[in-house]
Design a protein that fits this description.
The chain is mainly beta. It is built from no helices and 11 strands. The strands form 3 sheets. It has a 7-stranded antiparallel beta sheet with strand order 1-2-3-4-7-8-11, with no helix packed on it. Strands 5-6 form a two-stranded antiparallel ribbon. A two-stranded antiparallel sheet has the order 9-10. It is elongated, with a radius of gyration of 22 Å. The termini are far apart.
Length: 165
């Protein structure tokens, strides 16, 4: 039986002159009944905020956003050593507590605003972060394990063209 408690706060604001802001924050406590520890892979805190601008005629605009993920843990199985009789142990690996900034800009390349170019830079500061943790057996061993992490999106640039018909 799992007990989940928490809250979410959201806000949006029209700052005028083409500027808009939005933010959301979520706090969640997710625990097995009576365990007193957060469930694996569920962050307690999560924040996303953004600031956007668009010209009065809608010809171009841009946005900056930040995503912050609080402490996030995963239970990972390891061994005490390479011996055939090594004892297995489970430890809690914290791979959360990171922030990622994304930037984007768009512009129409015709006066009818049907042809649109969008440039987007994910993880603008090239933050190295993990989205999950696990373990696996070392090659050739039946007991020795190692911990590995799924890497988050590295700095990535996207350029897209779209046509509205």
């Amino acid at each position: 039986k799992v007990e989940v408690r928490g809250y979410e706060l959201t806000a949006t604001a029209d700052l005028g002159n083409g500027w808009d802001a939005q933010a959301s924050y979520t706090h969640t406590t997710s625990e097995n009944d009576g365990a007193g520890t957060q469930l694996a892979r569920i962050p307690k805190d999560y924040l996303k905020a953004g600031l956007a601008y668009e010209t009065a005629d809608g010809g171009w605009g841009g946005e900056a956003s930040v995503l912050w993920v609080g402490e996030q843990r995963s239970n990972v199985t390891i061994t005490d050593g390479p011996d055939a009789g090594a004892a297995f142990d489970v430890f809690s690996d914290n791979y959360g507590d990171y922030a990622v900034i994304d930037l984007s800009a768009h512009m129409f390349i015709d006066k009818d605003q049907k042809h649109k170019l969008t440039a987007r830079l994910e993880n603008a500061l090239d933050e190295e972060y993990a989205t999950r943790a696990s373990s696996a057996l070392v090659d050739g061993s039946s007991t020795e394990r190692f911990v590995y992490h799924f890497r988050g999106v590295p700095q990535t640039f996207h350029l897209t063209y779209s046509y509205d018909f």
